[in-house]
Design brief:
With 284 residues, the protein is mainly α. It contains 14 helices and no strands.
């Protein structure tokens, strides 16, 4: 067997092995989703039966109706949607400002040290600062309001600042220099040149920020009363029978409805996410 044929055979085997691994991983990821969809139309007794029945004995589409009749689903969803969109937009703008400052004013004293703080904050889990934040907001009497989310958006997000900084570092300086010759200052250059050309990163930040709020369970549980709570907490706690037993299959139906917007957002926005992450590659 000559070398060329041997190399071709090795490449095909490697490709087949790679596809096999990808197929196995895809199957392992799809099985829980299929199980969720099927279980959402089962009776609770059918769901808890042993041995396990993969298909429902009787199809309970009523579970999906109960999601809307047992909770003010539309009202809570709209509340969460409005808060999610508003805080995502604020986060995208403030994080872009921070990223621009770190990328374009590196000669300013303290710039590198502050950016090192941003890098450190990237590895600090949010749960670590959850209690100190709650104490601060409680002392300011901002609990049971949406100010914790709004103020959090106003101070930007370390990871999003990092993404913007990396993107701006790779942006052609010639365009900025031409704008400076025309009399544009840093603020105008940011708003009229850099930000309009940052659409992939903006889309990435908007999607991630919205996903973070839509999927938030912990902060609504400690900041908000039930009348003002958000969808993530509501869907996790609302479905119980009159004696307090959890209605598992109704909760699963609520989960399907709950994650559907996120699936749609990622389905239609995945190319922007990939482009945003790729164009924000490590530089500087």
């Amino acid at each position: 067997m000559n070398t060329a044929l041997k190399d071709r055979l090795v490449k095909r085997l490697n490709r087949a092995g790679g596809y096999t691994i990808l197929i196995i991983v895809a199957i392992l990821m799809i099985i829980p989703i299929i199980w969720l969809l099927i279980s959402s139309i089962k009776l609770d007794a059918d769901y808890m039966a042993w041995p396990i029945h993969f298909l429902p004995v009787s199809w309970q589409w009523l579970n999906y109706k109960l999601v809307f009749t047992m909770t003010p689903f539309v009202k809570v969803a709209l509340r969460t949607l409005v808060l999610g969109l508003s805080t995502s937009i604020i986060t995208a703008i403030t994080s872009a400002m921070g990223g621009y400052a770190f990328a374009r004013f590196q000669d300013v004293k303290g710039n590198k040290q502050l950016f090192q703080v941003i890098i450190v904050l990237l590895i600090v889990p949010n749960v670590v600062i959850l209690i100190p934040q709650f104490i601060v907001f409680a002392q300011l009497k901002l609990t049971n309001t949406y100010w914790p989310w709004i103020l959090g958006a106003l101070v930007a997000e370390p990871y999003f600042i990092f993404l913007y900084r990396q993107f701006f570092l790779g942006f052609p300086r010639e365009l900025e220099e031409a704008a400076e010759i025309d009399g544009c200052g840093p603020f105008r250059i940011f708003w009229q040149i850099l930000l309009p050309n940052s659409k992939p990163v903006i889309a990435t930040v908007l999607i991630f920020a919205f996903n973070g709020l839509w999927g938030d369970y912990i902060r609504p549980s400690i900041y908000l009363a039930d009348a003002k709570t958000l969808l993530g907490f509501k869907m996790a706690t609302a479905f119980v029978d009159p004696v307090g037993n959890s209605l598992r299959t109704v909760s699963l139906a609520a989960t399907v409805i709950y994650i559907l917007p996120l699936v749609l957002v990622f389905f239609f926005g995945q190319k922007y996410i990939l482009k945003g992450l790729i164009t924000s590659g490590l530089k500087g």
